[in-house]
C-alpha cells in the first residue's frame, strides 16, 4: 500500500492507467494473483492497520490480472490499463494505491521507489492477501505514473476535449 499526495497527482479526472517501473530483477517476474485498488484519503501518512488508511472511504478495485498471471521485466515500465470510469479522482484528496499479490516467483514487487517525508508505504511479506496489519513502514513510495483523463469542455461546437497527463 502506498500513499500519494494530491499535490503530486494533479487535477480531478478518471484514472485510466497505472505504470510502475520494475527493477532489481535479473529476470521477468510473474504473479498468479495480482489486484490493484485505489482509495481517496485525507491522511498524510499511512498507519500500520491497512483498513484504517481508507479514512471511511471504500476501496475501488481497478485491476485484476487474468487467470494465469501478470508479469514484468527488469527496468521496464509495466503498463496496467483500467476500464473507463473505474476510479474518478476528485482532485482534492490523497490517493492510496494498494497492490496485492500471491503465488509469485518473488516475494516483492521489486520496483523503483523515491524518498518521502513521512510513512508513505506499508507492506507485509508472506502474510496472505487478506492481511490486516503491515509488517513494515517506510518513508518512500513506489515510482509510478498515473494517467488521468478528464473532460475540459463539453457541449460546444468543438465537442469534448480530452487530455492525458502523466
Report on this structure.
By secondary structure, this protein is an all-beta fold. It has one domain (about 1-165). The protein has one helix and 14 strands. The protein has one helix at about 5-10, and strands spanning about 1-5, 15-20, 30-40, 60-65, 70, 75-80, 90, 95-105, 115, 120-125, 135-140, 140, 145-150, 160-165. The strands form four sheets. Strands 1, 3, 4, 5 and 8 form a five-stranded antiparallel β-sheet that branches. Strands 2, 6, 7, 13 and 14 form a five-stranded antiparallel β-sheet that branches. Strands 9-12 form a two-stranded antiparallel ribbon. It is globular and about 40 Å long. The model is unreliable at about 150-165 (pLDDT under 50).
Give the rounded overall mean pLDDT. Answer: 70
Q: What distance lies between the first and last C-alpha atoms, to the nearest angstrom?
A: 20 Å
Question: Helix amount, in percent?
Answer: under 10%
Poorly predicted segments: 152-166
The number of helical elements comes to 1
Shape: globular
Number of domains: 1
Number of distinct beta strands: 14
Share in β-strands: over 45%
Largest sheet: 5 strands, antiparallel
Could you give a short description of this structure?
The protein is built from 1 helix and 14 strands, in the order βαβββββββββββββ. It is an all-beta fold and 166 residues long.
Topology:
Blueprint: E1 2-4, H1 6-9, E2 13-21, E3 29-41, E4 60-64, E5 70-72, E6 77-81, E7 88-89, E8 94-104, E9 113-115, E10 121-123, E11 136-138, E12 140-142, E13 144-151, E14 162-165
Antiparallel strand pairs: 1-8, 2-6, 2-7, 2-13, 3-4, 3-5, 3-8, 9-12, 10-11, 13-14
